[in-house]
Amino acid sequence: MDALRSDIVLWLEKNEIRSVRLLKKLVEQRSVQGNEAPAQAIILEKCRQLGLQIDLWEPNGKLLRTHPDFYSTRTHFKESPNIAAVLKGKEGGRSLILNGHIDVVPEGDLAQWKHEPYLADSKDGKIYGRGTSDMKGGTVALLMAMEALIQNGVELTGDVIFQSVIDEESGGAGTLDSILRGYKADGALIPEPTSMKIFPKQQGSMWFRIKVKGKSAHGGTRYEGISAIEKAMLVVEHVRELETVRNKRITDPLYSNIPIPVPINIGEIKGGTWPSSVPDAVVLSGRCGIAPNETAAEVQKEFQDWLKRLSAKDSWFTENPAELEWYGARWLPNELPKDHCLLETLANSYKTITGKEPVLEASPWGTDGGMLANAGHIPTVVFGPGVTETAHFPDEYISVSAITESAKIIALFIMDWCGVLQKEGDHDEQQKSHFN
Predict the structure, then answer these.
(1) Which site from 83, 89, 93, 223 is most exposed, i.e. has the minimal number of CB atoms within 10 Å?
(2) Sign of the CA dihedral 98, 102, 104, 110?
(3) Is the pTM of this model over 0.85?
(4) Is 396 a catalytic residue?
(5) Which residue out of 36, 55, 103, 147 is catalytically annotated?
């Protein structure tokens, strides 16, 4: 490691407390959907302090809502701003997007939390709270990496485009609108909670509803009716069989540590109107994974064809087929080739800092990487300091040391990807310095 890189690493170590302060400020803001503005104000002020070229806007307009990749559970984005902040390069080198989302999922049942979700408690080198891992800790790592470069006088040849976007948790409308606004680059990194592993692949997912029909009757003579709840139990088991079939096809070693690479999860059941009545309708709502090598349309067709097989198990479904609907949020899959220079550059930066080979895995969930790769045609990799297992869980936390280590890796990654303008005296003339 040369002197400049050593100085950057040392600066990040000495300024770790600043990372903690920034993260605590962000976690204290309950930035669930529709309430992102206070947390974005903190991001905005940090970008202003760094002297970045700032763009602040609310996603809107016909172009967004008519785009084929637009899916969201929201009806509007008023007072939910996106931020893009650019550190300009000097000589037209390779550009890089650093994309983080500011929205968090709700905290859920407070009784399951030992730590208050929005107090940002510190204990044993960890910070607890909603959004620490998913993914405000990763966003802090991005900002601290950029600040380390700026404070040490690093002049890049390519642009760095930092983004703090909304709506990732509902399908990526914030990132899609950033693409439509013109923000594209030669590569992108998203610091989702990977537990410091590198995710070159990720599953996509989409929400579905299945309406199961029954025949109403009095509960005292339930034998005269057809229970939609009982028929729904058959549908649930049938869908579970589809999940098994789909996952047996996946042999990619990047999924070897993931028990179910592309799950089909039924997360909501609604049905019945009265305890003494046989229910005549049940609606099952859930999430279906999309493998990196699949399209949403292919998965939808397979799912629909599979449900048609129900009639072979129960003749009721011949005249009363289960009705499938796709709705709500959707995340696109992503697959970065294993020999892509973006992945190689990040892996080399990881080895420089840690002295170890990085662990490569496939992501167990969707991210905005699918949107960047598919809608923006931007090669994208996912890597961050958060704890994969605590995302969306009670007592979500992140290790302070992981934030610092990831910031070191990202800082060197930025330098090696975008290139560094050599200072006068380093060479006979200024030239670009790339790792590859």
Answers:
(1) 223
(2) positive
(3) yes
(4) no
(5) 103
User: Contact 170/367 with Cβ under 8 angstroms?
Assistant: no
Of 331, 351, 382, the position where a domain reaches its end is 331
Terminal-residue alpha carbon distance, the chain: 15
Burial class (CB in 10 A: 0-12, 13-18, 19+), 300: middle
Looking at 36, 69, 107, 168, which residue is catalytic? 168
Q: For residue range 26-36, what is the model confidence (pLDDT) as tens digits?
A: 999 999 999 99
In this structure, the number of other CB atoms found within 10 A of the CB of residue 176 comes to: 27
Packed helices 3-14 and 137-151: angle between N→C axes, nearest 10 degrees: 130
Nearest to 100 by CA among 328, 331, 385: 385
d(CA 40, CA 45): 9
At 111 the three-state DSSP class reads: helix
Omega of the bond prior to 135 within 30 degrees of 0, cis?
A: yes
CATH number for 321: 3.30.70.360
Q: How many domains does the chain have?
A: 2
Residue 168 is a catalytic residue: yes
pLDDT digits (tens, 9 = 90+) for 95-115: 999 999 999 999 999 999 999
Please give the Cα distance from 425 to 262 (Å, whole number). 54
> To which residue do tokens 């799950």 refer?
263
